[in-house]
């Protein structure tokens, strides 16, 4: 399991995409889960499942894989 808190927060868009591709490839090649926290929709779009937390309440936004 890999935990990442805003892994692209301080990066420009190109390097942010590279980091997300590396995380995705690493997780798939090792059959690992990535638990990622982000405020960016483009980063969240890499996920198979999204849980949105707003005002202390969570909402599961599972995606079809």
UniProtKB/TrEMBL annotation:
Q: Per its record, what are the GO molecular function terms?
A: transmembrane transporter activity
Fetch the InterPro entries from UniProt.
ABC_transpr_LolD-like, P-loop_NTPase
Q: Which residues cross the membrane?
A: none
The record's GO CC annotations read: plasma membrane
Put simply, this protein is called: Macrolide ABC transporter ATP-binding protein
Q: Which organism is it from?
A: Streptomyces caeruleatus
The uppermost taxa in this organism's lineage are: Bacteria, Bacillati, Actinomycetota, Actinomycetes, Kitasatosporales
């Amino acid at each position: 399991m890999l935990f990442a808190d805003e892994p692209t927060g301080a990066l420009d868009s190109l390097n942010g995409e590279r980091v997300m591709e590396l995380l995705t490839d690493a997780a798939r090649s090792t059959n690992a889960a990535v638990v990622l926290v982000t405020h960016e929709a483009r980063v969240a779009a890499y996920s198979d499942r999204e849980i949105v937390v707003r005002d202390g309440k969570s909402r599961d936004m599972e995606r079809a894989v």
